[in-house]
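Whiteboard transcription, Tuesday session. T.W. wrote the structure tokens on the left side:
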């Protein structure tokens, strides 16, 4: 089969939504073992040398998710920890790696998945963002190439925040990009600059704080109402007990014969 380098042109309506098993068993395994893929839909890029908001423009395909083959860059040579520090922040792993098993054979492990979140700033003082990476690697002990597959995306937020972000990105596209019909679909994809991304993130933080504050107020109100209900119940029980006690004292002792 001939090598195709422009799937979006050659395949109208093409959407790239592979399963985890397809990412590991087809795309990553073939690349690691040196087999040429029929379509060039995933490019090579060390995403850990780039800030996440730059990655959509560097991906070959993707609308909400962006895929990359990533050569592992280790801090202290082979066997050392991977270097995941960018110019403006760092990627931090969340939890332990998760085993991925085959859908057709639940006993067959086909790889591992590591989830990382991007933090702005440096370690200890980093500010958490909504950028997430799923890093997939093969389970084989020895591999001919030290390469992983990464899926980058932004964690889902509230509909209101998404609408605000979309409006900001649309405004950015209209004001900063030249109007030319010669651009490809990937050329016209817009995304926030670091400064605008920080503004959006700060706004999201403020909105989250407001939501938390409202929840606390509602929770306090519910607590007060619950306390009032309990108090009324206690008063009611006390009154009933008093009535029963009074009634028992007034009962006739019966007719004496």
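and on the right, the sequence the group agreed on:
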């Amino acid at each position: 089969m001939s090598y195709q380098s422009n799937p979006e042109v050659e395949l109208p309506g093409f959407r790239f939504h592979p399963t985890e098993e397809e990412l590991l068993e087809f795309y990553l395994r073939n690349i690691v073992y040196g087999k040429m893929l029929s379509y060039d839909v995933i490019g090579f890029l060390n995403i850990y040398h780039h800030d996440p908001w730059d990655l959509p423009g560097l991906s070959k395909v993707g609308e909400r998710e962006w895929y990359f083959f990533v050569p592992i860059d280790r801090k202290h040579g082979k066997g050392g920890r991977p270097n995941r520090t960018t110019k403006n922040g760092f990627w931090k792993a969340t939890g332990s790696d998760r085993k991925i098993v085959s859908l057709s054979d639940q006993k067959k492990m086909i790889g591992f998945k590591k989830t990382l979140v991007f933090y702005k700033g440096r370690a200890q003082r980093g500010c958490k963002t909504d950028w997430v990476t799923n890093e997939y690697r093969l389970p084989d002990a020895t591999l001919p190439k030290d390469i992983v597959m990464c899926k980058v995306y932004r964690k889902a937020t509230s509909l209101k925040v998404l609408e605000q972000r979309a409006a900001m990105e649309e405004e950015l596209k209209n004001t900063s990009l030249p109007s030319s019909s010669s651009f490809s679909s990937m050329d016209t994809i817009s995304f926030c600059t670091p400064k605008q991304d920080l503004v959006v993130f700060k706004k999201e933080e403020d909105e989250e704080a407001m939501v938390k504050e409202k929840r606390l107020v509602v929770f306090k109100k519910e607590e007060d109402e619950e306390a009032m209900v309990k108090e009324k119940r206690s008063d009611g029980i006390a009154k009933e007990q008093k009535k029963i006690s009074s009634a028992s004292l007034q009962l006739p002792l019966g007719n004496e014969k």
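Someone added at the bottom: The first strand starts at residue 43 and ends at 44.
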